[in-house]
Amino acid sequence: MSTLTGASAADELPGPDGKRPLEGDRASTGRLGDRLFGGAATLSGVIVIAIVSLIAVFLIVQAVPALMDNDANFFTSRVWAPGGEQPAFGILEFLWTTISASTIAMFIAVPVGVAVALFLTQYAPTWMRKPAAGLVDLLAAVPSIVYGLWGLVTFGPFFKPVQAWMEGALGWFPLFSSTGISGGTIFFIGIVLSIMVLPIVTALSREVFDQTPVTHKEGALALGATQWEMIRTAVLPFGRPGVISAAMLALGRALGETIAVTFLVSALSDGTAWTWSLFNGGETFASKIANNAAEFSNPSKTGAYIAAGLVLFLLTFVVNSIARVVIERRKAFTE
Amino acid sequence: MAKRIDITDLNVYYGSFKAVEGVSMTVEPRSVTAFIGPSGCGKSTFLRTLNRMHEVIPGGRVEGKVMLDDQDLYATGMDPVTVRRTVGMVFQRPNPFPTMSIYDNVAAGLRLNGVKNKKTLDGIVETSLKGANLWTEVKDRLGKPGAGLSGGQQQRLCIARAIAVQPQVLLMDEPCSALDPISTLAIEDLVNELKSEYTIVIVTHNMQQAARVSDRTAFFNLKATGEPGRLIEIDDTTRIFNNPTQQATEDYISGRFG
Amino acid sequence: MSIATDRRPDDAIVPDDAVTPPGGRPGRDALAEMRSPHRARAVKDVVARIVMWGAFALAMVPLVWILWTVIGKGAHMLTTATWWTGNQRNINSDDFGGGARHAIEGTLEMVGLTALIAVPIGILTAVYLVEYGRGRLAKAISFTVDILSGVPSIVAALFIYAVWVTTLGIGRSGFAASLALVLLMIPVVVRSTEEMLKLVPNELREASYALGVPKWVTVVKVVLRTAFSGIVTGVLLGIARVMGETAPLLILAPYTKNFQRDLFSGNFPTLPMMINQDRGDFALETAAERMWGAALTLIILVLLLNLIGRVIAHYGSVKK
Q1: Nearest residue of B to residue C221 by CA position?
Q2: Pairing of β B169-173 and β B87-90
Q3: Degrees (nearest 5) of the Cα angle C206, C207, C212?
Q4: Which end of chain A is more exposed for a tag (fewer CB within 10 A), N or C?
């Protein structure tokens, strides 16, 4: 398993001896020790279920009253004014920023991450594979707050001229038109996010590529395929479900990434005109909540932020579930 | 020490699959009984029912009766853990606990069941290792990992571990199939010595081995794949190998199938 | 002849079906053609090779860049003695120096408490999934662990806020932040432990059962014992993971510049919040130095845990 992702494409595959671990057996007896220990294990599992259910329940219960009082349309409004007598708030801006920044991150992290995984499993000399993989994992060990600082102080200023050049060269295209915002744009945040989730894509892809049956690979090579052709015909098709679920897990992480984004975003002032440009600013769900933690003064105001958190929870839930389903399918296929 | 096992009309199931059907036999104390038969005939499965080890596989259950002298192993209220302390088992592949030293491996059964007295343990470890013909080879390195021994030594270590809990019966599930000929010979000699104290049941694929070590031999067979295994016949080993009553036994012995 | 054909300069423009030899011994050229891939295929192969190496190099750029920045700007702070002994009391953004001991202690204490709660739940849940679980409950638990591992830290923090502050009416505190971190740590511990337990061969369980050892003793003394080093590694990586989490602290544990050991009341010092504090004035040299110093300290702690974890995994693993 990869400790980075908490998920494994190798889960549930039979062990090296071809047997599954013993489960659901009757080795447990009515002894006191067995009852206590088995009971404690079951209880822990039930606690985990309870926690996840409670997260959903609490967020819903505390979001609903605020949503009832909401004067604006929660999904289509760009206004965010949850306090006061006439609370009005909508998540459209956060939804757009969150999803577009994460999508950019995916466009970068998935191809690069997969290429790095191929490098680590197919191209790197054997002596290099383990240390190189360790270095990629290091990227995941760097706390996200440090990414935030680096983006803010070092990478941000470096990227400004790049963005200026892109606006000049590609500005005719609505996605790249200039908005006058030079730092902390959606595009820039997408790039930082891509670096942060790259190790997730790589770790899981590496795991599935490593599992490509030797017979598939040798079959391709025996037909005279070059190494690249072997990878295209044997390794990639075998690893595709793993790569898809890796991408989904990475997407889940990108959607919810908080502190780095909070450091980097440039919030838009109220009433800023709508634009499709990726060089616009704007808050994500996570950064909006984090930036306003000090403002959780009354229930209705807090409720608005909790409602936004609930949407984020559902988004990541859906994305992670897709990853899970893809992995399950693969398992069924492999057996 | 040794006890007789009486089996009456035993069926073994895994879930809805009937693996073994209608076995009745008596296993004599202080003797070696060998189970032979083609792969998949249920001899190992049947062996595991003699100490209720089949129950650790999901869905494993039996119908019928297994008596150890006058104790019914499947009586309600009979604790499978107690059964396994009385009926020890040695597996196909040597499986010493990898985190434990040689000493700790032999003492494991007692320690895990709460025996702490150092003197008692020392004594039992020494007798068990002597009983398994391993003492002279390892007495100077009892603190070394058990996994560092050769395959044959590991298997004798597992036998020492099994007899350390002082069982009545010793079940051996193809104990030599992963060993080289010299180690095999050492185990066979050991089996010969142990039978003066224990009831031994050994499953083997090797007919020469059955002929060499056992006093009685049981032949198991199955009609076809997917059918349950059955006991074809059990008799003195010399009878089985020279003059079996069943045609199937003779075919198997003479190498016509299997 | 065939070797010469390989080096033919116009090889690249010879189409696949044009391999009929000019005469002499037919078949030799066709064979040579097959032995060395057609030039276009070979070029693709080389390009792919370069792309893969390039991707790896590209991935290393931010790593080196980040470490370079943090060490370059923060190392200086760590060489002052007060950094390891003092706190930030009465030190304004434009004052130089001060210590980080309060934040280091706070962070360690907070993740220590987090681990104390998350590790037993995580390990026992993994034990359930591998050793006991079967059927619907196990599936449901496994699914919720996946969901929990996907919960963003900000959502975990909001949930604890909704329970702890809004519903129970207890104020923000270090302990509330610990609870949020527990939610983030449990799935890491469950998954890594689960993986390690699955690596324990069934033969060892059977050997133990066959000695008449009850199941729970088998699980505790044989299975968990055999998987021990792997589990420790997973726990350390889990701690490293939550140590750098900032969002829950932002929502639940306001920062203090003082020494504060009490997790249960009032503000609480942690390294991420110390970074966050100085981030506001990072244009000031004095604040920036502190910020990078705290970031470097945090990275060192996290990498140290990772390193210890990997060393244990390497040397503690059972040799077969």
Answers
A1: B112
A2: parallel
A3: 90
A4: C
**Given this model, what pLDDT does residue A176 score?**
84
Residues 6+ apart with CB under 8 A from A75: A90, A91, A92, A95
CA C284 remoteness from chain centre: 32
H/E run at residue C258: none
Spatial separation of the C-alpha atoms in residues A225 and A162, rounded to whole Å = 40
pLDDT, tens digit, 9 for 90 and up, residues C91-140: 888 888 889 999 999 999 999 999 999 999 999 999 999 998 878 899 99
Interchain contact, C70 vs A150, CB within 8 Å: yes
Q: Which amino acid is at B202?
A: I
Q: What is the pLDDT of residue B258?
A: 52
Alpha-helical segments (H) within chain C:
2-6, 28-35, 39-78, 81-85, 101-127, 135-150, 153-160, 174-199, 202-210, 215-217, 224-226, 228-243, 247-252, 271-279, 285-316
Cβ of C124 under 8 Å from any chain A Cβ?
Answer: yes
Contact A138, C63 (CB under 8 A): yes
Residue A6 has pLDDT above 50, yes or no: no
CB atoms A15 and C246 under 8 Å: no
Instruction: Decide if A26 touches C, using CB distance below 8 A.
Output: no
Q: Which pTM was predicted?
A: 0.86
Which of residues 177 through 206 in chain C touch A, CB cutoff 8 A?
A: 183, 186-188, 190-192, 194-195, 197-203, 205
Give phi and psi for B64, each to the nearest 5: 120, -165
**Chains that contact A by 3+ CB pairs under 8 Å?**
B, C
Domain of residue C286: give its range: 83-316
Residue C95, domain member (yes or no):
yes
Which residue from C106, C109, C104 is spatially nearest to C77, judged by alpha carbons?
C104
Residue type, C225: R
Contact call for B80 and A24, based on CB within 8 A: no
Q: What ipTM, to 2 d.p.?
A: 0.90
**Cα A106 to the chain's mean position, in Å?**
9
The CATH homologous superfamily for domain A32-334 is MetI-like (1.10.3720.10)
pLDDT at B77: 82
C148-207 per-position pLDDT tens digit: 999 999 999 999 998 998 888 888 899 999 999 999 999 999 999 999 999 999 999 999
- Answer whether residue C74 is part of any domain: no
Token representation of residue B117: 């007295």
Question: Rounded to whole angstroms, how far apart are CA atoms C9 and B63?
Answer: 80
Q: How many whole angstroms separate alpha carbon C298 and alpha carbon C306?
A: 12
- Taking contacts as CB-CB distances below 8 angstroms, the residues of chain C near B112 are 208, 211, 213, 217-218, 221-222
Q: Tell how far CA A26 is from the center of its chain.
A: 40
With respect to residue C227, please indicate whether it lies within any of the assigned structural domains: yes
Distance, CA of A41 to chain centre: 30
What residues have CB less than 8 Å from C247, skipping those under 6 apart? A258, A259, A262, A286, A290, C152, C153, C154, C157
Span C229-239, pLDDT tens digits: 999 999 998 99
From the CA of C199, how many Å to the nearest CA of chain B? 13
Asked if C93 and C291 count as a contact pair (C-beta separation under 8 A), the reply is no
Report the alpha-carbon distance of residue B44 to residue B37 in Å, rounded: 10
CB < 8 Å to A302, chain C? 161, 166
DSSP A20: P
Please identify which residue in the block is written with the tokens 């008449």: C212
Closest residue in C to A54 (Cα) is C159
Q: Which CATH number does B5-253 carry?
A: 3.40.50.300
Per-residue pLDDT at A4: 43
Residues of A in contact with B57 (CB under 8 A): 22, 25
Rg (CA), chain A: 24
